[in-house]
Amino acid sequence: MSFLYITLGLSALVYAFYYYFTRTFNYWKSRNVPGPEPIPFFGNIKESVLRQKNIGVVIHDIYKAFPNEKVVGLYRMTSPCLLVRDLEIIKHIMIKDFEVFTDRGVDFSKQGLGQNLFHADGETWTALRNRFSPIFTTGKLKNMFYLMNEGADSFVDYVSTECQSRQEFEVHLLLQSYTVSTISACAFGVSYDSLQDKMEALKLVDQVISSPSYIVELDMMYPGLLRSLNLSLFPKVVMKFFENLVDNIITQRNGKPSGRNDFIDLILELREKKEVNSTKFGHSGKTLEITSDVIAAQAFVFYVAGYETSATTMGYMLYQLAMNPDVQKKLTAEIDEVIQANNGQVTYETIKEMKYLNKVFDETLRMYSIVEPLQRKAVREYKVPGTDLTIEKDTIVLVSPRGIHYDEKYYEDPEVFNPERFDPEVAGNRHPCAYLPFGIGQRNCIGMRFGRLQSQLCITKLLSKFQVEPSKNTARNLEVEPHRGIIGPKGGIRLNVIPRKIKS
Ligand code: HEM
């Protein structure tokens, strides 16, 4: 008898769990929105939750599975969200109807590092973007160029020394050492003399950030829970690290710009100015005081967003150059020519001049867009243009740049690395939303120009001295690392880096 009760009890429990973890799964069917069949508890992102596939790859798979649909309904855990495939709808959401989609909708404690530009929403985001956009202008970037240049020179020196004892490098890791030093110099004013210690510390932070945490899934499952419990996405040790770093730097500078023209200087300049209250992003009711917490949060996001994205882009770029010697030859010829014409100097202007370099860079980010998927949240009910669907307030909307960049509709032979796709005439005829490595619209990547510049400068200096070739360990089919939040090569990228025989 007791066996029967136990069996009945267990069955009831299993049923209760099953019911609870599938209770939302009729959401899209009842709205006639097609989509993949969800799995209890995991929804449609099981492989990502189990860290078998990167979330960007999972969303790309869903994109591919519905080639004829404008929108696809899916479930991140049990939460319904909408994948938008149609470029015109994307244009509406990201640009034309931006006022409905100002938020990214990652909902956690917005105190401390949570006040960073990437994760901030609502009026805080508007105020932050208004206040921090001026530090990313071309003029400010030009003033900062010397810091990147120093970083690139010492990086090339380092590679030269290493090349005396070995040929093969894991280039993704190698390039991270350049971007960590550049971003440290540009964001925190950490000078190159003391870089070794700082790099060790920042690497530690990176490990903490990239170690598997299921807090993001918790947010997907219970939107708003983390915020109401005042829980952050970031471990305390990371928060403390950035708060201390920023406090120390501000104290060293007596709270005033030091003349280095780095981000901290620019932020301190902003702090000295009066409030900005109306801008192209509209009126923000909120005035934003630039406290050391706010500075720490931005320093943190510039560091995280700035070093990994560029290092990964350059790593993939070197990989494609090694696999496509003709492209490498053409790029090297351009680099040699431009440097020679500029008396051996690489300046901000020379980088801009290099048309082929820009095409190679763009094609790299077509094949390997790093931040996946793009995300927005509807701040009110919204009728999706060109469909019968009205989405509810708070619905999360996703866009898959990877899906679009590999879609034959927009790019013929998408698996082929072909920089000529970015010939201005060809690219000019493309839909503006068919190329999204930096996102698009008012909430696109604020560091786009910085990322391009630091990557292109480093590649220029590197290829002026070295060539890259596949080694016996180079993966012929690069897989995406499932553990990290952004796209990156699983197991790194192994290449031979060989000093060039420069004709005198
Ligand atoms: C190759 C390099 C980079 C790539 C591919 C990249 C890509 C992206 C993408 C796709 C987004 C989301 C855009 C959207 O949702 O529409 C983004 C946002 C952002 N990126 Fe970048 N990024 C790069 C470099 C940088 C750098 C160097 C910085 C800072 C120094 C930076 C800071 C940010 C910030 C703060 C945001 C959030 C902007 C906002 O929400 O207002 N990124 N980035």
UniProtKB/TrEMBL annotation:
The keyword 4Fe-4S does not apply. It comes from the Eukaryota. It catalyses: an organic molecule + reduced [NADPH--hemoprotein reductase] + O2 = an alcohol + oxidized [NADPH--hemoprotein reductase] + H2O + H(+). One of its GO terms (molecular function) is heme binding. The keyword Membrane applies. GO terms for cellular component: endoplasmic reticulum membrane. Heme binds at residue 445. It is a peripheral membrane protein. Belongs to the cytochrome P450 family. This is unspecific monooxygenase. Its cofactor is heme. Its EC number is 1.14.14.1. PANTHER family: CYTOCHROME P450 (PTHR24292), CYTOCHROME P450 308A1-RELATED (PTHR24292:SF104). The gene is CYP6B31. PROSITE patterns: CYTOCHROME_P450 (PS00086). It is found in: Endoplasmic reticulum membrane; Microsome membrane. It is an enzyme of class 1 (oxidoreductase). It comes from Spodoptera exigua. InterPro entries: Cyt_P450 (IPR001128), Cyt_P450_CS (IPR017972), Cyt_P450_E_grp-I (IPR002401), Cyt_P450_sf (IPR036396), Insect_CytP450_Detox (IPR050476).
